[in-house]
Amino acid sequence: MNRSPLTNALLWFVLILGTAAFIFPLWWMAVVSLETPQRAEAAITGSAGIALFPPSPQFENYATAIKETGSVPWMGFVDALANSIVVTVLVVLGTVISSSAVGYALARLRFRGRRGLFLIMLGTMMLPGQVTMIPLFLLFRQFGWIDTILPLVIPAFFGNAFFIFMYRQFIAQIPESLVEAARVDGLGHAAIWWRIILPLCRPVTAICAIFTFIGTWNDFLGPLIYLHSDESATLAVALNGFKNQYGGLEDVHLLMALSVLTMIPCIVLFIAAQKTFVEGLARGAVKG
Fold this sequence. Notes:
15 helices, globular, 288 residues, mainly alpha
């Protein structure tokens, strides 16, 4: 479309303004994390302005925040980081594998009651998590899974309704002739799903993996309910414990430093998978 220079300038202004509004909290948090305790406290209380860049960056704030996380110096952060990585990787793998498999079954297999099961699955999206929280806790307690990562990981291998819907809609657009050619070559449903369908669903897989990673990495309520010991805590729970222990204004720079460290993996993942993520949105992964 041919736009006038004034229209282009207005669009750029709106985009830059919106970008700045989203980036400002992250920038402010990073700047406070590098300030001295006095300057950080003054910035929080509003008694002094905050510089665009710290005049003398205190990078040792990050080492101090890592050291003071948990009850054991240094190891508290390492344990929380390792727990978060294990839980997040397993949940991402379980969600992608199970959601894509169920999506393939709903899109390509013909069986009685398929439409009804699909509608029931969509109906589960209307249930808030607070409704199933207590029944799930009682169930996992009967299994003896409390204070383990199993309650956080195992449900991921039973699919996610939203991502199943995305996979189902995307797979339904794949030409039936491609699937029929695979059947002629002797491939079964499992081989067709793994060797043909799943590679073609890369844009949807990117969306599923990114959203699942961010949601699991930042999840606080689930680990808080099921993980009770410091050794099994994830970063979100460790960050909350750090806030309770060092929540005063004199330690706000340490809290911001630990928050920045917790946020970095999500930013790196999105930047690395941005192209595939945008491709999935542009191709209309949720269109039917």
